[in-house]
Amino acid sequence: MPAARKRPAAVLDAPAPAAKRRAPGRPRNEPVAPARKAGARKAVATLARKAVATPTPRATTKKPARASKSAPSGETSDEAAPAWIPPKVKRSAKEKAIGFPGAVVPDALKRALDNPSFKREEKVLRLGPNGPPVRDELGYRLSYDALKKSRTRRAPRDMTKFMAMLDEDERIARRKRELMGQPDNKDMPEAVWTDRVARDLDIPFHCVELPEFEEWYRRGFRLQPGELIERPSKEERLRLDVLMTGCVFRSKV
Fold first, then answer.
1. pTM over 0.90, yes/no
2. Does a structural domain hold residue 210?
3. Where are stretches of biased composition, namely Low complexity (predicted)?
4. Dihedral pair phi/psi, residue 135, rounded to 5°
5. Does a structural domain hold residue 2?
6. Residue 136 near residue 142 (C-beta atoms within 8 A)
7. What is the overall mean pLDDT for the chain?
């Protein structure tokens, strides 16, 4: 009788395979219900029909937009530029009193510059957007939205957006110099030209922006040769300071 072969130790020590567990109460070798099979076949057939019926989307290529023809330097295009809408705010009597070169600034406005008070701003924020109007030294209503925005804590500045903002400001400043006929005069304060546009169009100083410069040029206003080249005098700077102080908080409606 041949001797029995010895099995390797690794085989002897290996654990027995675990038996598959079945759910309690379920008999062994339970057949699949016919209804379940029919439902699976129906679902597969439905998906196949949808795949055949759904058309494959075509790849569309957009044509590049044509560059719009811009007006040449120093000129405006009446077709491209929208119609200018005058501001609803009228020039106050106090601004008209000092709204010309060489005007004498009253002592009350000088004291307002020397001792700025934030009581009016705090009152506007306390009363809310629907509160009664609160006016500044020149008689203009203060804007609740502008004051609220200045007091709101802002998120960290995005450098990409910040550089884009600087480029846009430079473009606007360059366009204003072209409209005023002084494209190379970068030393002149912009408030001098803003004051000139406000006086010619008879609108408040704080309502003058680039569209107002465009309208000023369209109406035929021009600076005389040699006009507004020298920097303003001390008295003129005081008058402009009164117009500029707090102008961003004045309402335009």
1. no
2. yes
3. 9-18, 48-59
4. -110, 155
5. no
6. yes
7. 78
Q: Which domain holds residue 245?
A: 93-152+182-221+229-249
Say how many residues make up the chain: 253
Name residue, tokens 């494209």: 183
Angle (deg, nearest 10), helices 119-127 and 144-151: 100
Structure tokens, 107: 């002592």
Q: Is residue 122 part of a domain?
A: yes
Task: Answer yes or no: is 130 within a domain.
Answer: yes
Full 3-state SS string of the chain: CCCCCCCCHHHHHCCCCCCCCCCCCCCCCCCCCHHHHHHHHHHHHHHHHHHHHCCCCCCCCCCCCCCCCCCCCCCCCCCCCCCCCCCCCCCCHHHHHCCCCCCCCCHHHHHHHHCCCCHHHHHHHHHCCCCCCCECCCCCEECHHHHHHHHCCCCCCCHHHHHHHHHHHHHHHHHHHHHCCCCCCCCCCHHHHHHHHHHHHCCCHHHCCHHHHHHHHHCCCCCCCCCCCCCCCHHHHHHHHHHHCCHHHECCC
Q: Is 204's pLDDT higher than 60? A: yes
The count of structural domains within the chain is 1
Tokens of 143: 């804007």
Dist. CA 161–CA 164, nearest whole Å: 5
The pair of three-digit structure tokens given for residue 2, joined into one six-digit string:
């041949």
- Single-letter amino acid, residue 250: R
